[in-house]
Amino acid sequence: MQVRLVRYFLALVKERHFARAADACGVSQPTLSAGINALERQLGKRLVLRDRRFISLTPEGEALLPWARQMIAAQEGMTSALAATHGEVSGQFRLGAIPAALPFAGPIGQALLASRPALALSVRSLTSREIVRALAEYEIDGGITYLDHEPPANVLSVPLYTENYRLLVRAGGQWDGRETVSVAELPELSLCLLHQGMQNRRILDARMAEHGIALHPRITADSYVALFSMVQAGPFATIIPEGYAALFPDLRWARMLPLTESVAASRVGLVVLDRAPLTPLASAAIEAARALS
Fold first, then answer.
1. InterPro entries from the xrefs (predicted)?
2. CA 164 to CA 186: how far, in whole Å?
């Protein structure tokens, strides 16, 4: 079975469109279609239902899918392991990070690339659930996510830091001269927060519930860039991880106030898929994370 044909199959599963899958593989659509046909002949099973376009996988295609992903991951792992015998770990490390942890992508990326100069780094913003799925499907090599709340399964983890909160507000008005804010004040504010599909929001709601407080934001979003923009433009406030306060310490238009009450901190860490043997990429990431932590 040719690895190239399996890559065509996986590209088609991801894109669900023959032309886009061909573009992703750098081949023409007839070449990709012929490759899928060849793979089906080799296996003696029809893998894809199509009628001039992709419709779905057959039951046989669904059964093949996890093994195809493992096959490609194993092939890439073998290539990386062979390169590592000459003292260099090369290739691209694909990192997924939850939005709350994106400020830490810089330190972990710098530590990884400094220790492995032949590596390249690709960073994607993903939810915690997307990170678990992408690791299981070999779409990423590692992730930065929460370790305790809805803990990811089948991973090896290295704690990196604990997350605390700050209130982000526009400078001026009632906030001038204030150094802290009480959690009891939060429900009275015009809040913009991440939506509840984001784990940071679910954790925040749980932490506030411990203080008998429920938050009802007027605006929800899926990125901190949007939340910062809302606070800058209007009479809104938001709650951000301390990592963003450290990333933007000198915003003239903003104030970032710590909470007066103790709010339980959440651990954030690097996770890689728990499999033996570990790929050189995963091993390099764990080593870099341990050096940082």
1. HTH-type_LysR_regulators, LysR_HTH_N, LysR_subst-bd, WH-like_DNA-bd_sf, WH_DNA-bd_sf
2. 16
Q: Which residues in the chain belong to E strands, given as ranges? A: 48-50, 54-57, 91-97, 119-125, 142-146, 155-163, 165-170, 192-194, 219-221, 238-241, 254-258, 266-273
Q: Express each pLDDT in 160-191 by its tens digit.
A: 999 999 999 999 878 888 899 999 999 999 99
Tokens found for residue 258: 């710590």
Specify the amino acid at residue 246. A
All domains of the chain in start order, with CATH: 3-81 (1.10.10.10), 89-162+267-292 (3.40.190.10), 165-262 (3.40.190.290)
| Each residue's pLDDT tens digit, 117-127 | 988 999 999 99
CA dist., res. 41 & res. 272, Å (int): 35
> What pLDDT does 209 receive?
95
Tokens of 38: 């060849």
Distance between CA atoms of 96 and 109, rounded to whole angstroms? 11
Evaluate the omega torsion of the peptide bond into residue 241 and state whether it is cis, within 30 degrees of 0: no
Query: Whole-model pTM?
Result: 0.80
Polymer length in residues for the chain: 293
